[in-house]
Amino acid sequence: MRVNAYAAPAAGEPLVPTTVERRAVGPNDVLIAIEYAGICHSDIHTVNGDWGPQPFPVVPGHEIVGTVTEVGSDVSRHAVGDRVGVGCMVNSCGECESCRNGDEQYCQQGMVPTYAGTDRDGTTTQGGYSTHVVVDADYVLSVPAGIDPAAAAPLLCAGITTYAPLRRWGAGPGRRVAVVGLGGLGHMAVKIAHALGAEVTVLSQSLKKQEDGLRLGADTYFATSDPSTFEHLAGRFDLIVNTVSAVIDVDAYLGLLAVDGTLVNVGAPAEPLSLNAMSLISARRSYAGSMIGGIALTQEMLDFCGEHGIGAEVEVIDAAQVNEAYERVLASDVRYRFVIDAATLA
Ligand code: NAP
Ligand code: ZN
Description:
By secondary structure, the chain is of the alpha/beta class. 24% of the residues lie in helices and 26% in strands. The chain is globular and about 60 Å long.
């Protein structure tokens, strides 16, 4: 079937309305009528060419929520009418050690990204800025009834990308967690870390969003443009989650970690990050990275958010506003996720 979508025709060019072909529903496929698609900074990195050449035209969008309208003959985990979600991956080999461990995002054959990837049938994947998508049922998540669908969409990337390191590095009662950057990922990190019981600090470029940060669940909030922040908070945190889309001074943030503390990078800037080994050695600190999360963990995150009443703070936009939204994300002027209303694509 041919469906309406918004695509970037070439690197750095504005997105334009187009149509894409969706495959016929196979035995293990689900056809989803998309309701909302979040705008992730990764969409912008991808279409701007920050991460290398792409198979243009690219329809971005990996924070998808919609309703099942058709299922293949072998599908039992989803039914017509269900509210479902699709995140950053739509396939993986299912057999390698990573896949068997529930880390499909680290599939040794390479997971299939939701857009700009090569699916296992050889076609190029096209993402969620669209009215419909066909996805293998094993990569389709159930969205709990209690979460507003527009607010649920960003959980499929921003939610799982922050939930995974917070869980892995033990964010919880008695642990001091800092979140660097209060954007799409950062505001989810604050909500989730707070719900996990950690003491949460926001480290933002300025104090402009301080009131929001405290409302979202932060206990304290500091401006990184103020050099005294780095003196005042030296050695304080057990865990720092860096969500910044640009290069940061890694050594300055490592200095904020306690002995045995970990700085986890989820932000993925175009340029390399560097550090002085002494920043790690001097207090047995770790510097780590983390990419989205496996399917089972993503479902756990959605259920956790359902139980705790957590959704993203969203600004719902028409598809025609997508280029303007990109500009605002690049200017750190997002509060805190743009979500496209797919009805405006019909
Ligand atoms: P976003 O909404 O634009 O948030 C990024 C935040 O970083 C901004 O709101 C801003 O917060 C801060 N920031 C931006 N430029 C900065 C600069 N030059 N210096 C210091 N701080 C700056 O982006 P997002 O969607 O949350 O994504 C963040 C990053 O994570 C992107 O690189 C994205 O590609 C990556 N990502 C990674 C994964 C993964 O699996 N690891 C998944 C999704 C996204 P303040 O205004 O509060 O300072
Ligand atoms: Zn994303």
